[in-house]
Amino acid sequence: MNLIFLMAVLSMDTLKVTESQAIQIALEQNQQIAAARLAVAVSQYDVLAAKSSFFPTISASATYARLSYVQKMTMPVLQYLEPGPGGILIPHYTFTQMEFGKPNNYKLQFSVSYPIFTWGARINGYKASKLSSAAKEIELKIEEARVKNQVQKLYYTALMTKALYNLSVTAYKEKKTHYESVKVRYDNGYASDFELLRAKVEWKNAEPSVIQAENGYKSAVEALRFAMGLPDTVWVEPIDSLNFIDYNADLDSLIDIAINNRLDIRQLDVQIAAMERLISAQKASDKPSLFASWQYNYERPHGFEEKWGGSWTAVLGAQFPIFDGFKTDAQVKSMEIQLKSLRVMRQMAISGAVLEVKKAYRDLEAARRTIVSQKENLKLAKKMFSMAEEQYKSGLATSLDVMDAELAYLSARVNFITALAQYRSALADLELALVAGGSKTGGEVAGQNGGLQQTSSGWDMGNSRSGGSREGGNTQGGVGGQRGQTSAPAMGF
To answer: Rounded to an integer, what distance in angstroms lies between the CA atom of residue 449 and that of residue 464?
Structure first.
């Protein structure tokens, strides 16, 4: 998404989005993904830092030193020899003082150093940092997959609650129409006071359901908006529909796909390779190394003369670590244990991938069978309701028969909407199970609800649960979607 479009989105009061647009906005705006991108950027700079070990270290310095005391030594200086008695030469001296330094000292220094041989510590450290950076990039992809799954579920939760809201409005109108039909019969003397009163009570009892359904829809939209990372000033309106998307694949093939392509397993493979490199680098810590350095000094005084002069020094040396208190050995053993732990985690990840795929596949198949049965049941309930209305108009059925048929028809429509939502949720979970592990992004946030609950007054829209998430769960109201498949025509109700 380009910046201009995003700015236009944020300036809107109402944003109509498809599922793909909601996912795209979330990938741009979600704070968890933003944090993962920053972690990738940090790891890339760590790679540059590790790469620096292949270059020489070059430094320059300038210093000035003022000595408060310069040590001096008094020395005799022979002036001449004077002949003495018996041919002895008598020396004559004068005394002078020699300074060992100058009060003002200036030095300009330039140095170059380079490790020639380090038993592979540098190359292993560099490759380990590159592998660590690759692991962070995989973590970013995992986070994107989880956020996509979260937005899919919240998007279809919003669609489901919207459909249930419309259904509650329809049910309210149906009850009102039935009341008006009973009143006509009552005015003509064909209905009792009880029938009229019962029809009116049923009609009025439907009003709270409409209010609660509307509230549930608003809560679901707010949860979707939060997951997309949009401000409170933007009202999100989902415009897709709960279509049935067929998905045909056998379980064994899906398991093979997950084992070979799961990002969390691939991430552990990269982390294992990085740890092996780090162990090799650590083992070089107690081995001798070769280094070279060159230094040039330009200073005053130069020697014992008060003038500027330069000199250089070249060094080729070897360093032999004799004893480090078993530090290297302990660090290597600690890292080897961490390596074993990573390998165990990899096996656990494979087992977890198999379990997640199996569960998602079973949930998908169960939801598919539920849709087939509820589709047929919806047709029967609709036919029964129509027959009850016709028979009531003809005087062959009571008002109670019509209300019972209406309740059965409403229940069938609710069950069908819920079955579609659960199917899309299972489809989204299966997609996630094929590419990454269970969600760590907080799952469905507060407001993911929308289940209809039967009460004494009929069907009410209730907030079945809020906050938190259940990994892989299929709670009522927790729905999702699947992209990249061929959509079948919408199943009407």
So the answer is: 5
Q: What is the pLDDT of residues 238-279, one digit of tens each?
A: 988 888 888 888 899 999 999 999 999 999 999 999 999 999
Residues carrying CATH 1.20.1600.10, the chain? 3-52+124-274+332-461
Look at residues 13, 20, 4 and name the one whose alpha carbon lies nearest to residue 482. 20
Q: For residues 423 and 421, what is the distance between their CA atoms, to the nearest angstrom?
A: 5
**In CATH, 3-52+124-274+332-461 is 1.20.1600.10:** yes
How far is residue 48's CA from residue 43's CA, in Å, rounded to a whole number?
Answer: 9
- Could you report the per-residue pLDDT of 47-95, keeping only the tens digit for each? 999 999 999 999 999 999 998 888 888 888 888 787 878 778 888 878 8
What CA–CA distance (Å, rounded) separates 54 from 70? 44
Tokens of 302: 């130069």
pTM: 0.71
